[in-house]
Amino acid sequence: STKQLPTRIGHGDFLVFRRRGSSNKQGEIARDKLLMWMLDHEHEMSAELASQYVDLDQFSRYMLGMAFCSAQDWEQGAAILDLRDPEATWRWMPWDLDRSFRNHAGEVAFDRVLSSITEKRESIPALLFSALVARDASYRASFAKLATECINHRLTAEFLHGRAAYYASLPSQLGEASKFDSYSVFFKEQRQAIMTQLTERFQQGAVLQCRIEAIAGIELLRIDGYEHSLPYEGLYLAGQTLQVESISPTHTIAI
Question: Helices 25-41 and 124-135: crossing angle, nearest 10°?
Fold first, then answer.
C-alpha cells in the first residue's frame, strides 16, 4: 500500500502513481505528463534522453526482475519521485506480484514485458522499455551486461535452489502438500531463457558457458567483482569479458 511509503522513505514529500489503484493527485498529474512525453519521444528514445526523467539503472533492474519473476500484472508497479532530492528521477517499485514464477500462455522471460507494448499504450514502463530495446543499441548492450551479471552472481543456480527448497518446506510444516516443487524447474529454465532472449531480442552475441576449474593453491576467486569458490560456471554472451583475480591467496590470473 502507498500508505506505508512515508515510513519506508523517511518523509512524505514525494509523488507516487500506479497504473491502477491509489495515487496521490499530484502524482496522477505527473504521470499523465510523463506518459505524454514518452509518446511524443517514443520513436527517438535513447538512454540519454530517458535519463532526464527516469533512474535508468534502477528501471533496468526493475524490468529484469519483472521478466525473471514472470509476474502476470508486472506493469502495475508504482513509480515514485522524491521531491526532497533536487536530482531525483522516477523510480519503480515491484507491486502486485501474485501469479509469479510461472509461464503464462507460453510466455517466458522477456515475452511478457515486451509484448505488453501492443496492448497497453498507457503503460509507461512498457512504452519506455520497448522503445529503448528497439532503438538504442548501447542500452541493449548495457542491459545485457546487467542481466548477465545478475544471472551469474545474484540469481545463481545455488541461490535459487535454496529459495525453492525453503519454500517447498513450508507447506510440509503446515501439514499440506507442497505447491512449490515446480519452482526449481521454473528457475532453471528461466535463467537459460533470459540469456537466450538477450541474443534473440536484444541482438547480442551467442550464449556461451564459461567454466573455471580448480587452480592449484587457489581457493577463492573474485569474478566480475563477486567472490566465488572453484569450480565456477557462468553464462556469458559472445563479446563479453570476465574480470578474474585470486583473493585466496592473491595472484594475477590470465584468462
Answer: 20
User: Bridge partners of 74?
Assistant: none
Q: What percent of the chain has pLDDT over 90?
A: 46
Closest CA to 220 of 208, 209, 232, 203: 232
Which residue matches cell numbers 525453492? 164
Q: Which bin fits 7, alpha (ψ -120 to 50), beta or left (φ > 0)?
A: alpha
Q: Is 69 helix (H, G, I), strand (E, B) or coil?
A: helix
- Unique residue bearing C-alpha cell 532472449: 197
- What pLDDT is attached to residue 250? 56
At what angle are helices 137-153 and 124-135 packed, to 10 degrees? Answer: 110
pLDDT (average), residues 13-18 = 88
* pLDDT surpassing 90 at residue 34: yes
Instruction: Select the more confidently predicted residue: 83 or 4.
Output: 83
Rounded Cα gap, residues 30 and 34, in angstroms: 6
CA distance 255 to 247: 16
Q: If you write DSSP's letter for every residue of 70-98 in order, what string do you get?
A: T-TTGGG-EEEEETT-TT--BEEE----T
CB-based contacts of 94: which residues, under 8 Å, 6+ apart?
62, 65, 66, 71, 77
CA angle 125, 130, 133 (to 5 degrees): 125
- The cell for 190 is 528461466
Q: How many CA atoms lie within 13 A of 167 on its CB side?
A: 12
**Residues 6 or more apart in contact with residue 201 via CB below 8 angstroms:** 110, 114, 133
Quick check: 15 and 26 in contact, CB under 8 A? yes
